[in-house]
Each structure stands twice: as C-alpha cells, then as structure tokens.
Amino acid sequence: SGTAPAVDYQAILDQIWLEVAPRLGEGKVASYIPQLATVPVAQFGMAVYRLDGQMFSIGAAQTRFSAQSVTKLFALALAYTRVGDSIWQRLGKEPSGTAFNSLVQLELERGIPRNPFINAGALVITDILASCFVGSEIALLQFIRQLCGSTAPDFDLKVAESELKTAHRNFAIAHLIKDFGNLHNTVSAVVRSYCRQCSITLSCEELARAAAFLANHGSMPACVPGGTQILDASSAKRISAVMLTCGTYDAAGEFAYRVGLPAKSGVGGGIVAVIPGEAAVAVWSPGLDASHNSALGTYALARLTDLTRHSIF
Ligand code: GLN
C-alpha cells in the first residue's frame, strides 16, 4: 500500500504452502454438527485477493467448504445496510471472553448479546434480517453472491438439517433472548434461518472476493464490473474493528497478537481477514484449535503478516 515496496504475494504463499503441507491434519474437525464431522481434516487452501483485482492462491483455494460463523460477517454487513447503527440498541460490541456458544453473559446482560459474532449476537442479527426480508437467508445468500461475483455459493441443506437437529444450545440461547424481549420473530424461524445461513458453502477465492469491500472503505474494488458501494467508509471501518476485537471468539486477543488483522472465523475451518487498503485474505483448513479457530489457518495468516509486514500494527 502507498509507498511500501510491492509484495510478491505468490512467492510468500508458496513459502507458506511449503511450511503447511507437512502439517496437514493438525487440529480437530468440529463434530458437534454431525455432518461437519465427515469432512477430511487434511485439507488446506488460501487466497489473497488484492484490490487491483489480482488473485493469488495455494492449495485447495477453489474447494467449497462450510462457511459457518464466517457468514456472521456478511449478515452483520447486510443488517447494517438496512438499519445502520440502530442495531447497537439490540446488541453490544465488546469481546465476550467466553466461548462462541456461551449463555452465561446473556443472562447477566438481560438478553443483550455481547457482540454480533458470537452465536447469541448472530441470532439477534438473523432476527433483524428476518424482519427486513421475506426469506432472509436467501437475501443473505444473494448478498454473498453479489459480493463474490458468482452464483456458485449455496446452502448445504444436509449441513443445515444436521445442525438444526442438534441445535439445542442455539435454541436455548434464542429462547433466553426471546424471554428478555430481544427477538421479534419466532424462535423456531430464527434458529432455522440461522442454521441455513451457517450452511452456506464457498471457496477461499470466493470468500476473499466477498470481503474485499471491507478492505476498500466499503466499496467493491473498482476493477469489479458493476461493483458498488456496499457500506459507507465509516461503517466499513466499524465492522472491521468489531472483527478485530470479536471475530475469533474468546481467542481474539491471541489472534490479534499472532496475526494482527481484523478477521472472522468459522467452525468449518474458514477464516477471512482484511488488510485495509490492500487486500482480503481467506484461508481454510478444517482442523480446529481449542478455541474453535482453524489451527493451520491461523498459522498461515500469522506467517502471511510476518512475511508481508502487512498487519495493521
Ligand atoms: N453454526 C455454528 C453454530 O452455531 C457456527 C459456529 C461457529 O462457526 N463458530 O454452532
């Protein structure tokens, strides 16, 4: 960016691939959603989409995976385009310090989730979208397709059904929020829509394209035909800030320390990160660490920011 020397992204990605390849299989796939437990762990892909339109990738960067909580980023952005800063009347923007599916603070804070990136907050965002759109998860899918310029991303209904059948904790969270009056649609409609949203599949290359507007002050990169302004610059900045502090659950501090970029992770093993003014990066490897972030994905992003010096710090 600016006066910094140009970075040879492909050479750096190739270096990362050399380091990661012998470690394929590290971490554990999420198994609390039965269908996700069937994904082979020894997979890895990574893509850097620079704002000038160049794509650099390694490994399985075109393989579609279950986006899971990565979709919370796009749900927040879509809600923001509709209701703006008034969403903060219904949820906070502080890191939780507890697991992504925790109920503890929800009781203490009277049904106001800590932030939009833990499950409680995402369920409130789903509720907001359900009040804005008929078929809100379809609106979200269309939004993601628009951002990545492809109709390939889609729901994986097997994963959605598998999650819905075992979604006891998300039902519990939604019921508690409902009891505090912070859910306007029915619990069953919201959890169902949320499970569909989480089941959306996309590849690293598609995900990197989809997040590029956040690296570009809220506008899709100028090189995208028909690319438009999604959010104003101030809103894009705010969403990126919430990614930095809350995007990787209770490991956001550790992640900022190691990677130093705003990012959002999911239990499918995907992570999307933003290099402001420069690029969006997506990485996927299904093996998770103890805080449910992709183990090799986090490693690869840490190496990327070390080798390129493009962290925000
Ligand atoms: N659908 C998952 C859940 O609600 C998403 C969690 C995640 O990716 N952290 O448990």
TrEMBL record:
It catalyses: L-glutamine + H2O = L-glutamate + NH4(+). Its EC number is 3.5.1.2. GO terms for molecular function: glutaminase activity. InterPro entries: Beta-lactam/transpept-like (IPR012338), Glutaminase (IPR015868). Substrate binds at S69, N119, E163, N170, Y194, Y249, V267. The keyword Hydrolase applies. Keywords: Acetylation, Hydrolase. Homotetramer. NCBIfam families: Gln_ase, PRK00971.1-1, PRK00971.1-2. Belongs to the glutaminase family. This is Glutaminase. The gene is glsA.
